[in-house]
Write a structure and sequence with these properties.
Elements (H helix, E strand, L loop, with lengths): L11 H12 L37 H10 L5 H5 L3 H9 L1 H9 L4 E8 L2 E6 L4 E4 L7 H5 L3 E5 L2 E7 L4 E7 L4 E4 L11 E5 L2 E5 L12 E5 L4 E5 L10 E5 L2 E5 L13 E5 L4 E5 L22 E4 L2 E6 L4 E6 L4 E7 L13 E5 L2 E10 L2 E9 L9 E7 L6 E6 L1
Antiparallel strand pairs: 1-2, 1-24, 2-3, 4-5, 5-6, 6-7, 8-9, 9-10, 10-11, 12-13, 13-14, 14-15, 16-17, 17-18, 18-19, 20-21, 21-22, 22-23
Length: 401
């Protein structure tokens, strides 16, 4: 994959040739960058000006930054390839912090349909991209995994032979590294992110005990912090942010039998949980046997409105906050099939709801992405992209930055 496909990836041979030329004093470009703001190491590198207030020399730092902010983040890989100074700016993360402050956010879909492969899709340009391969043992690749994008990072949770493990992909460097472990390792948890933070709630620990504990991750510090426990322990649950609050919805109770219909709301200001009875109905209004045979609730929030994909009825529903109820608004895309909810992703992607899934055609797997911008009408699904691939989606998350 070339550097123009994902930020921060630079062709090594091109980079080496460029740096050799710069060392010889060969500066053919008229565009120069200084260190990113806040860098005061006092060193001047080839291709940089001596005045740290400038980025693009002719424009000055502020206007230069403003120009770069208007670019799609798909272009940042090409920008980073120009010279080490541009690359340093991109990899510092400063541009993404400014974009977040200014409300400039692009959403990409990150997914895995094969155990050794992670991909990304840019819905703005309709581009498929491959991520580097995770360097890990086969136990991790073959274990059940969960994923969550937080800030400019993609976290993948799984288990190696001897212990749980988290691998972290950085958008800034296009590289994987080992992430800091949770205070309480877990799986089958509810999770969601909001800007540079992410919350994991419930799940089960390595011995199978179902948890009520909660942790929050800060992508700026790379650290996990324990939050107050939920009112109920639950696994196989789902999480979303809505109206600035985190919600854990549905799941299986501590007795490993009861299918929970309540949700819980966490207030980020007061750090308190509030239980919401009957927030999520049992599928088909009956208890599944076993309850773990179905996937966690397929839910997503667009513009602070909560939606659910009922795979048993192939229906999309909208949550009515005023009376704590659900209304059916339409059906699934034609090709959005699943195995009791598994293998199908239902996500919010900016102002869109998307289905990521597929089907088999003449013995070939076909992966489709369908999207709809919610309005007052029934869903009219628009096929964003199709590719030949394995059609079962193991993991999917959306990164907005």
């Amino acid at each position: 994959m070339m550097s123009k496909n994902i930020e921060g990836r630079v062709d090594d041979s091109k980079e080496n040739e460029e740096e050799k030329n710069q060392e010889k004093g060969n500066q053919k470009n008229s565009i120069f960058l200084s260190h990113p703001k806040g860098s005061n190491d006092g060193k001047q590198h080839a291709g940089e000006t001596s005045d740290s207030s400038f980025l693009i020399q002719q424009l000055g730092r502020d206007i230069s930054i403003h120009c770069l902010l208007q670019l799609s983040r798909s272009d940042y890989g090409s920008v980073a390839a120009l010279n080490p100074s541009f690359r340093s700016l991109i990899r510092s993360g400063e541009l993404y912090q400014l974009r977040r402050t200014m409300g400039i956010i692009e959403h990409w879909v990150y997914f895995s349909c094969e155990v050794f492969k992670w991909e990304a899709f840019d819905p703005n340009r309709g581009r498929w991209m491959q991520l580097p391969k995770i360097i890990c043992d086969e136990w991790f690749m073959l274990s059940d995994k969960e994923s969550l994008a937080i800030g400019t990072e993609l976290l993948v949770f799984g288990k190696e032979l001897m212990a749980p493990k988290i691998y972290k992909y950085s958008l800034l460097t296009n590289m994987w590294s080992v992430g800091k472990m949770l205070n309480t390792p877990r799986c089958l948890f509810a999770s969601a992110s909001f800007g540079g933070i992410g919350i994991l709630a419930g799940g089960c620990e390595m011995r199978g005990n179902i948890l009520s504990s909660v942790e929050i991750y800060n992508s700026n510090t790379g650290k996990w912090e324990t939050l107050p426990n939920m009112n109920k322990a639950r696994k196989m649950c789902s999480g979303v942010f809505m109206d600035g609050k985190f919600y854990a919805i549905g799941g299986i109770a501590a007795d490993k039998i009861t299918q929970l219909t309540c949700g819980e709301e966490f207030d980020m200001t007061t750090k308190e949980w509030r239980e919401i009875p009957n927030m999520f109905s049992k599928r088909n209004e009956v208890l599944e046997t076993p309850p773990a045979s179905g996937s966690p609730p397929l839910i997503a929030v667009v513009k602070n409105v909560l939606y659910a994909a009922d795979y048993s009825q192939q229906e999309v529903k909208k949550y009515v906050k005023g009376n704590n109820s659900w209304v059916t608004i339409g059906g699934f895309p034609a090709q959005a099939s699943s195995m009791n909810g598994w293998g199908l992703a239902f996500r919010a992607c900016g102002d869109k709801l998307i289905f990521l899934g597929g089907h088999n055609l003449h013995g070939r797997g076909i992966l489709e992405i369908n999207a709809w911008v919610p309005d007052e009408n029934a869903p009219q699904w628009n096929r964003l992209a199709t590719k030949e691939s394995r059609s079962f989606v193991h993991n999917c998350t959306v990164m907005g930055c």
